[in-house]
Amino acid sequence: MPEKKVSLPAKLINGGVAGLVGVTCVFPIDLAKTRLQNQQGARVYSGMLDCLTKTVRTEGYFGMYRGAAVNLTLVTPEKAIKLAANDIFRQKLSKDGKLPFWGEILAGCGAGTCQVVVTTPMEMLKIQLQDAGRLAAQRSVSASAPAASPAPSLVTSRTAQAGHAAARRASATSITLELLRTRGLRGLYRGTGATLLRDVPFSMIYFPLFAKLNAVGRREDLHGNPQDRAPFMQSFMAGCAAGSVAAVAVTPLDVIKTRLQTLQKGEGEDSYRGIIDCTRRILNREGPLAFLKGATCRALVIAPLFGIAQGVYFLGIGEKVLGLLG
Predict the structure, then answer these.
(1) pLDDT digits (tens, 9 = 90+) for 223-235
(2) How far apart are CA 35 and CA 308, in angstroms?
(3) Do residues 38 and 131 touch, judged by C-beta distance below 8 A?
(4) Model's pTM, two decimal places?
(5) Cα angle 308-325-25, degrees, rounded to a multiple of 5
């Protein structure tokens, strides 16, 4: 059975639609992940649910979607590049419709490398917007700490409100312009090495694992593209399972990347000179468990995100859209 060829425009549409749907569903959990990973000194949040509850209380419902506009804008090219690149590499490395295991790993490696062009600036801007609320909350906690009588409570409340109002005033556009003005294009690509260090291993784990899970129960004599025969639910569950495993596996690298890309630090929080310095400081000051901060959140974000992505991709939404247009 010959392998079905999917056009590049269809792959880009599939990846883009999948990214938009997925990000809309799981963005609040991603915000909680960023804030939990950046906690170093004062514990503003005790966990994911506590973080989301306090965010809604102090910043409103849409506070959970701080930075979502950046993701919704850039996730289309990011996810499209990732999924399309992996598919192209798999087709190039396949022989007689079969792809060896080393080819699956190389295809994932290539996909992870290609997406960094979009992922790094997207993550850079998103993290600043997501973490602004945590910094404002930390300042309000610090301001209320010395108060022993009820008299200063109004001042504390106004301080907290002012902090959150300042956090809301920041925008992706203003951050981008400031980075370009003060640091040039390199400012937007701060943490590129750490992003590569996270995304390449993630893709090397995710795509081969997904391919294996998606092929469970398939006859070995069928050499066609799994897109021709994989049911939607199997693709969805394979994407969820592979995504959660890969997400947890690279969580330590995600913690390092998040810390390096965060520009504004809270009181008593470390700044880092690079990947090695960040790793050493986290290990010495916070212990090895700090590298697993946000692991549950990452699994809860990545699992449905890639489950939806693979489900949409294998449903062939892009092909249908092109068919309607053509």
Answers:
(1) 445 445 568 788 8
(2) 25
(3) yes
(4) 0.82
(5) 20
